Amino acid sequence: MNFVHFLHFAVRFPPFRQERSFFMPMQLDTGAIKTESRSLLRTGEVNPFRMTLFYLLITLVLDTINSGVSYMIDSAGGFTVLSFSFVSILVGLVALVLNAGYYCYCFGILRREEMPYESLFDAFPFAGKVILLSIVEGVFIFLWSMLFVIPGIIAAYRYSFAMLNLCENPELGVMEALNLSKRQTNGYKMQLFLLQLSFIGYQIIAVLITLLYQYVIISYLPDSLSGAVLGALIYGVLSAVVAVYLTPYLNLSTCRFYQLATAPQVNEPPHFDSWNDNF
Asked: Are 22 and 221 in contact (CB under 8 A)?
């Protein structure tokens, strides 16, 4: 083969490159995602509103326990502090697993399955992985945040599919879920950010409720164990006003976004994402 023939062959058949079909994201219709999520809010054996109330009730009990324990930690010493700290940490870990269970519930609703109240506890069989993944992910995001705020935010979105991967496939290892998320979110981080940003109205109301509690209500509560417990109850009830609608709406939308972003794509044009993985 002479040089002219070689050039002709090279133009027609360029060298093989690494397969990048996994990295060819499409533009997702976030409006359609939110519309579908709203339509599912009253489906299932236990609809998302009732499941969210059940979830918030458990969370309220955990927060109340945690507030009481935190107050006793401040006023105790020695081994008592260690025992109360253990209880506080345990409460936080249970909350992490329940949050993963809520994702499992949302995926079931999106699959049009009948999801009973017990489905909220579906993540407990792989609770160790949920906890370890949360810790490792938190460390990674913290390390990126030490560079600057923006890299930390991008890292948070880069790993945002990791817990969803684990909920959909509990057989995955922690690092597998994280590495898979890095590839899955390539090209979708900005879209996911904009989807979640579209809920900002509800989130502003939630922030205002927090400020109302922190700067007004808490000043009228007694500085005692009963005051700490009562404060947690009041804050939980006030937060539930927004959370009972926002929690299922946002989580169903996020899970549906995940399903679409990770689904096999056929003949879809690439979509530019300014939050690429060059960071």
From this structure: no
Q: Which helix (H) or strand (E) holds 57?
A: helix 48-74
Residue 129 has φ and ψ, to the nearest 5°, of: -70, -40
Tokens, residue 270: 């690439």
40-69 pLDDT tens trace: 998 878 889 999 999 999 998 888 888 877
Cα 75 to its chain centre, rounded Å, is 34
E-strand spans in the chain? none
pTM summary value: 0.81
Surface-to-core class of residue 278, CB atoms within 10 Å of its CB (0-12 exposed, 13-18 middle, 19+ buried): exposed
Helices 225-262, 79-110: axis angle to 10 degrees equals 40
- Output the six-digit token pair for 167: 């909920």
pLDDT tens-digit series, residues 77-102: 555 555 567 777 888 899 999 999 99
